[in-house]
Amino acid sequence: MREYSPDLTPQWKRAKPVPEVPADPDLVVEVAGTDFCGAVVACEAGTVTLEDRFGKRRVFPLEPRGFLLDGAVVTLTRPSRAPAAPARTASGSIAVPGARARVARAGRIYVEGRHDAELVERVWGDDLRIEGVVVEYLEGVDDLAAVVAEFAPGPDARLGVLVDHLVPGSKESRIAASVSGPDVLVVGHPYVDVWQAVKPSALGIRAWPEVPRGQDWKTGVCRALGWPEHTGAAWQHILSRVTSYRDLEPTLLGRVEELIDFVTAGGSA
């Protein structure tokens, strides 16, 4: 018969129990003994996957006393059940389950083409409906001055415009400068086309290919990647791989957020 052996460790030397916290999605913790801090994106098979603010993901074992929550040591456990609804929208904003779309504001966001509009809708659609912001596309910016004049922006009807390839000295930059004002904000990204705002990693490619000048860029991309030269189908494939803001380049993310803030600061619906 096994003898009972009492624990003679002094009370002051014994490790104090720490709280057990379910590793629910989006819970932000720090890994004990490291400088890695991130949000929970998965928890399975005795491990937890964390994603930091730069989009880097790492897997850690669910060890006792292995994490810090608000500076306090905790033990992460597997969630008891899946959440009833996503905690965040595709843009990373806090989700509002059951929220109704707001009546559309007088202000608008214009983007250059249909692909831009579809990408903005895919990532920011929930936010835009709650804020009552409508997104329309222009089919190019050559006539932007006339569009702005017809829209007649004002303090209660601000206009935000997202432009492709907005770099110093370009045609787009000159057009943007000619229409910008207190109630008109024109911002842009440096890419030839909004396709490039999707991270290559989301598509399983190393990088977007270089396309020689004078060649249709989208067709050149399809050719270089071995895709059928059908740009509409290619875009649908690209769009299908975008599930959240994490799949987009920060250059685009910042510009769209800037436009939403600008338009929603300009009065009520």
Fraction in beta strands: 15-25%
> Strand tally, please?
11
Largest sheet: 7 strands, mixed
Please, what is the average pLDDT?
Answer: 84
**Total number of helical segments?**
7
Taking strands numbered 1, 2, ... along the chain, how are they ordered across the largest sheet? 1-7-6-2-3-4-5
The CA-CA distance between the termini, in Å, is: 79 Å
Order of SSEs, N→C?
EEEEEEEEHEHEHEHHHH
Low-confidence sequence ranges: none
What sort of overall outline do the alpha carbons produce when their principal axes are compared?
globular
Oligomer: single chain
| Overall radius of gyration | 25 Å
Helix amount: 25-40%
Structural class: alpha/beta
Please sum up the structure shown:
By secondary structure, the chain is α/β, with parallel strands linked by helices. The chain is built from 7 helices and 11 strands.
